[in-house]
Amino acid sequence: MIMQADIAIIGGSGVYDTSMLDNVQEVEIDTPFGKPSDAITIGSFRDTNIAFLPRHGRGHRISPSKLNSRANILALKKLGVKRIISASAVGSLKPEMKPLDIVIPDQIFDRTKTRESTFFEDGIVVHIGFADPFCPEMSSLLSDIARELGYSVHDEGTYVCMEGPQFSTRAESRVYQNLGFDIIGMTALPEAKLAREAEMCYSMIATVTDYDVWHEEDVNIETVIANAMKNEEAVRNIIKEAIPRITLQRSCICASALAGAIITSPDKIPLESKRKLNDLIGKYI
Fold first, then answer.
1. CATH number of domain containing 98
2. Which residues have a Cβ under 8 Å from the Cβ of 196 and sit 6 or more positions away?
């Protein structure tokens, strides 16, 4: 029997440590949108079941633009997950947000171009609210824990999500700075949008690896990887402290995002769409 999970961690293979879990099992999940990036590891940490998903697959083999985020999020939903902690390496667009700092962003700006960012198509129209893209309850908790553990943490910030996989040009980096963005990465979207459509809480631990290319030192993959590896321990420590303190009773905006958002009349939704999206909209139709 496949274990269910309450909380999911999405990140690179170094972000999590399955040795902290008991009763570990790997599960393969199919979704109407295909398979997720890799098998999902599920285990128990104290009294909570946790699911781990390597965003880019084991061995980091899937480019940000090619991630099947719909399959990733829906697979976690099918396992019962209500809250997602995303771990992501980012570049800094502000001098005060230094490499090895931690940012808990509260806003996103979308600069992606080619990604499927909604579950709803084929005869069903849904308009969810997305003014506050990260779960405020969980983000506040993560900020508090990071500070308690002594890390240099920034409680808020706007994450500009670029398409990638190339890094920014100097012109782009300067424009992002002038627009007031704080950090830049390639993976927050469409994850955050899809998690909201699935009524799952989504918050991010963003770890700064570099200053992008506005700084006197150009960004390069060697620096990014080296600093990402240094940040892994901090992320693991924050996650371990957060899990016992995350309540599964939710009163946040995420828990009822679909209420009133489904524009199409239930009797007009094609049967195939109902079947395909039963894990998301079953209680509303």
1. 3.40.50.1580
2. 128, 129, 130, 133, 202, 254, 257
